[in-house]
Amino acid sequence: MRVLFGIDENPSQLAERMGMTKGAITKLADRLIAKSLMTRIASPEDRRSHTLRLTKKGESLVPRLADLADQNEAECFSHLSRTDRALLERVLKASVKRFGLNSIPID
Fold first, then answer.
1. Least packed by Cβ within 10 Å: which of 23, 45, 51, 59?
2. Is residue 1 situated within a structural domain?
3. pLDDT tens digit string along 40-52?
């Protein structure tokens, strides 16, 4: 699964799309901003609202990181049939739902 940032992303929408909490997105954004890979842009209409944007440096890493993610996924799951992969995904989603997990650790 590959999730890419658009030109400007609202943190709430990004959290929804990535299956993460807003808090996790904030922590991740803070780390990326500290590394000059992302910027936070305040909304001119609403000071409480902002968008996130990858910097040129951040954008340049996307293809390499996407390839690494694809390689990791292949290494971990290529031995499973399509049916088994779908089953694993269903089982994991059911466990997440049962235990009320709603955040993804990022540290």
1. 45
2. no
3. 988 888 778 888 9
pTM for the full model?
0.66
At 79, the amino acid letter reads: H
- Helix (H) or strand (E) segment spanning residue 101: none
Structure tokens at 64: 């390499």
Structural domain contains residue 4: no
| Domain enclosing residue 56, as ranges | 11-98
Give the whole-angstrom CA distance, residue 27 versus residue 107: 9
Residues 6+ away with beta carbon under 8 Å from 19:
104
Q: Could you tell me the pLDDT band of residue 101, with boundaries at 50, 70 and 90?
A: confident
**Tally of domains in the chain:** 1
Q: How far is Cα of residue 36 from the mean position of the Cα atoms in its chain?
A: 18
Per-residue pLDDT reduced to its tens digit, 69-89: 999 999 999 999 999 999 998
Q: What is the CATH number of the domain that holds 72?
A: 1.10.10.10
